[in-house]
From TrEMBL:
The chain crosses the membrane at residues 83-103, 110-131, 151-178, 214-231, 243-265, 436-455, 475-497, 509-533, 545-564, 571-590. It is a multi-pass membrane protein. Keywords: Antiport, Calcium, Ion transport, Membrane, Signal, Transmembrane, Transmembrane helix, Transport. Its main location: membrane. Gene3D superfamilies: EF-hand (1.10.238.10). This is EF-hand domain-containing protein. InterPro entries: CaH_exchang, EF-hand-dom_pair, EF_Hand_1_Ca_BS, EF_hand_dom, NaCa_Exmemb. One of its GO terms (molecular function) is calcium ion binding. CDD domains: EFh. SUPFAM superfamilies: EF-hand. One of its GO terms (biological process) is intracellular calcium ion homeostasis.
Length: 593
C-alpha cells in the first residue's frame, strides 16, 4: 500500500500559518495589555509623591503608547504593520495566487483535452485564465466602507495595468529573444529551427500567422471602454462621470460576449479561409504549369490573354479528343503539377476547378468554358501582381511567378503548416475520461477556492506594505501582483517560444494578445461594475493612458506585420520602464491623481 505524500507547497503553507498566527497573537497581546504598574523608588510603596519634582515627568512616561494595529482578514489570517512582515505576506499570498493560476491553467487544459475546442475553448478557458486577476480586482473594491474601497481600488487598477504592460513588454520581448530563427530573404518568414544568425537585429526574428495579426487587432480594439470611461476627464468635465462608467460597463460586457463568440467560431472561419488560400495556390500552380507547356505566349502584344494559345492548351489536355475536359483529365493535369510544400486533397481541388469552369453544369468543360476560365484566372493574377501591365514577353512568366509566390506565402501565414503538423501527429484517445474529467473539475474548483480565499488577504498586505513604506499601492500592485497572477501564462508562453517553430510562435503570441484582451474586457467589466455599484470615483487618468499607449503601440505593431526581427524586442522592453516613469511623472509632478 502506497504511503500518501504531502506536497511541499502545502507543508510550507501550513507552517507559515502557524508561525505568523503565533507572531500576530504576540503582537496583539503586547499592544492591547501594556504594563500600567507605577514605578517605585524602593522607599515609597505607593509610588512617586505628587510633591516630587519628577512627578510630572512620570505622568508623561505613563501616558499610553499609541501603536498601530492591523485588521486580520476573516478574523484569523495573520497580519502585521511592519514593512518586512508585509513583504513576507505578499510573497506568500502571491505564491498562493500563482498556485491558483496554475491549477486553473492545468484544469483548463485537461478539460480542453476531454471536451475539445468550441464552447470550452472559446468561453471557459479565456475566462478562467483571467479569474485570479478578476478576483483581486473585485475584492479591492468590495473591502469595507466606501472610503476604504476607494483607497484600496488602486490595487485593482495597478494589477490591471501591470498585467497588461508586463505581458506586452517583458514577456513579449522575451518570447522574441528565446524564439528567434533565421529570417528567409525571399519571403521574410522565419525558418523553423534554424538559428545561425545569432543576435543579428534584422536577419533573426520570429514569424507568426495572419490569425495572430487578427488577435492583435482585437486587442487594440478592446481598449475602447477605457476611452469611454475616461472621456469626461478628457474634456475636463465633472458631470456625467457615473453615466460614462455605466456606458463603459455596457460596452465592455458586450465586447466580452462578442470576443467569446469569436473564439467559438474562429476554427470554422480559419478552415474556410485556409481552403480558399489553397484553391488560389492551385490556380497559380496550374497557370505556371500551363505557361511552361504553352505552344505560344499566354498574353498577346497588348497584355491581354491570348485565346488562340489557350485553345491549343485545351487540345493538349483533352487526351481522348472528345472536345471536352473531363474530371479524370483535369485530375491527371493537377497530379502532374508539383505544388511546393503544399498538401491538399486532389479530388477537392478538381471539384473546385470544375466549379470555376463548368458554367453549363454538365460535369465537363468544353473549349469555350476552358478559355473563359483561364482568361479569368490570368486577369486575377495580373490584378494581384505589381499593378503594371505585363507584356507578352518574359514579364508574363514573372507576374505568374509573383502570383504563385504570393499565394504560397498567404497559405503559410494562414497557418497551413500548423494544420499539417496537427494532421501528422498521432491522435490518441484519452484513457479513463471519467477520471480526467473529475481531476479537471477538482483542479478548477481548487484553483478558484484558493484565488477566492487569498485575494482579500493579498490586497490587505499590499495596502499595509504601502502604509509602512509610503510607496503608493499602485506601483506595488503594478510590479508585484502580475508576477503572481500571470506567471503561469508567462512561463507557458516562454516555453512554447523556445521550440522555435512557426506554429508555436503563432500560438504563443496569440495567447499573449488574448490574455490582454480578457484583461481589457473581463477584468475591466468587473472593475467598472464595482465603481458604479459602490459609487466610487474614477480617477485613473495616468493609468488609463499607460494602458492605451502600450496596447495601441504593440497592437498597431503586431496588426500589420507577421515577422518580427530581433530589434523589435528592444521596443517592447523599453515600454515597461517608460510606463512606470510616465505614471510617476503624471501623478506626482503634474498632479493628475
Amino acid at each position: 500500500m502506497a504511503v500518501p505524500t504531502i506536497r511541499p507547497q502545502f507543508l510550507c503553507f501550513f507552517l507559515f500559518l502557524a508561525v505568523t498566527a503565533v507572531h500576530s497573537r504576540f503582537l496583539s497581546s503586547s499592544t492591547e495589555n501594556p504594563s500600567s504598574d507605577p514605578v517605585s523608588d524602593g522607599v515609597h510603596d505607593g509610588g512617586w509623591n505628587q510633591t516630587s519634582p519628577y512627578y510630572h515627568l512620570l505622568l508623561k512616561s505613563e501616558e499610553p503608547v499609541v501603536t498601530e494595529s492591523c485588521e486580520q482578514s476573516y478574523g484569523f489570517m495573520p497580519c502585521t504593520t511592519t514593512a518586512l512582515g508585509n513583504f513576507f505576506l505578499i510573497i506568500v499570498y502571491g505564491y498562493l495566487m500563482f498556485l491558483a493560476a496554475t491549477y486553473l491553467s492545468n484544469g483548463s487544459e485537461l478539460l480542453l483535452e476531454i471536451l475539445g475546442p468550441g464552447i470550452v475553448g472559446g468561453l471557459f478557458l479565456p475566462a478562467l485564465g483571467a479569474l485570479p486577476d478578476a478576483m483581486l480586482i473585485m475584492v479591492s473594491g468590495l473591502s469595507g466602507s466606501v472610503e476604504t474601497a476607494q483607497s484600496q481600488v488602486s490595487v485593482g487598477m495597478g494589477l490591471l495595468a501591470g498585467s497588461t504592460v508586463m505581458l506586452l513588454t517583458l514577456i513579449w520581448g522575451t518570447c522574441i529573444l528565446v524564439g528567434k530563427c533565421d529570417i528567409r530573404e525571399s519571403d521574410s518568414i522565419a525558418i523553423d529551427g534554424q538559428d545561425t544568425k545569432g543576435m543579428h537585429l534584422t536577419a533573426s526574428g520570429v514569424s507568426t500567422d495572419i490569425w495572430t495579426c487578427y488577435a492583435a487587432r482585437i486587442m487594440a480594439i478592446s481598449v475602447i471602454p477605457f476611452v469611454i470611461v475616461q472621456f469626461p476627464q478628457m474634456i475636463h468635465s465633472t458631470a456625467g462621470r457615473q453615466v460614462a462608467v455605466l456606458i463603459g460597463l455596457v460596452v465592455s460586457v458586450s465586447m466580452l460576449i462578442s470576443y467569446c463568440l469569436y473564439q467559438v467560431f474562429q476554427p470554422w472561419v480559419q478552415r474556410r479561409r485556409l481552403a480558399f488560400a489553397k484553391h488560389k495556390h492551385v490556380i497559380s500552380g496550374i497557370l505556371k504549369h500551363l505557361k511552361q507547356r504553352s505552344l505560344g505566349r499566354l498574353l498577346d502584344d497588348d497584355g491581354e490573354p491570348d485565346r488562340e494559345v489557350i485553345r491549343k492548351l485545351f487540345g493538349t489536355i483533352d487526351q481522348d479528343k472528345d472536345n471536352y475536359v473531363s474530371a479524370a483529365e483535369l485530375k491527371a493535369l493537377i497530379i502532374g503539377i508539383t505544388f511546393e510544400e503544399i498538401n491538399f486533397d486532389r479530388d477537392d481541388a478538381v471539384a473546385k476547378v470544375m466549379s470555376d469552369f463548368d458554367s453549363s453544369l454538365d460535369a465537363k468543360i468544353d473549349e469555350n468554358e476552358f478559355v473563359h476560365g483561364i482568361t479569368k484566372w490570368l486577369n486575377e493574377a495580373k490584378r494581384a501582381g505589381s499593378g503594371t501591365a505585363p507584356d507578352a514577353g518574359p514579364r508574363t512568366m514573372k507576374f505568374i511567378n509573383d502570383y504563385h509566390m504570393q499565394t504560397k506565402r498567404e497559405h503559410t501565414l494562414l497557418g497551413a503548416e500548423q494544420e499539417t503538423e496537427q494532421s501528422d501527429e498521432v491522435i490518441e484517445e484519452v484513457e479513463n475520461p471519467r477520471w480526467i474529467s473529475f481531476k479537471a473539475v477538482l483542479m478548477l474548483m481548487l484553483g478558484t477556492a484558493i484565488a477566492g480565499a487569498f485575494a482579500d488577504p493579498l490586497v490587505d498586505a499590499v495596502d499595509n506594505f504601502s502604509a509602512a513604506t509610503s510607496i503608493p499601492t499602485f506601483f506595488i500592485s503594478f510590479i508585484a501582483l502580475p508576477l503572481a497572477t500571470n506567471s503561469s501564462e508567462a512561463v507557458s508562453a516562454i516555453i512554447f517560444a523556445t521550440r522555435k517553430k512557426f506554429r508555436t510562435a503563432s500560438l504563443t503570441f496569440s495567447e499573449l494578445y488574448g490574455a490582454v484582451t480578457m484583461n481589457n474586457v473581463l477584468c475591466l467589466s468587473v472593475f467598472l461594475a464595482i465603481v458604479y455599484i459602490r459609487g466610487l470615483v474614477w480617477d485613473f487618468s495616468s493609468e488609463v493612458l499607460v494602458i492605451l499607449i502600450v496596447c495601441l503601440v504593440m497592437g498597431a505593431f503586431a496588426s500589420f506585420r507577421t515577422t518580427f526581427p530581433l530589434w523589435t524586442a528592444s521596443i517592447a522592453f523599453l515600454l515597461y520602464p517608460f510606463s512606470l516613469a510616465l505614471v510617476y511623472v503624471l501623478d506626482y509632478v503634474f498632479g493628475w491623481s
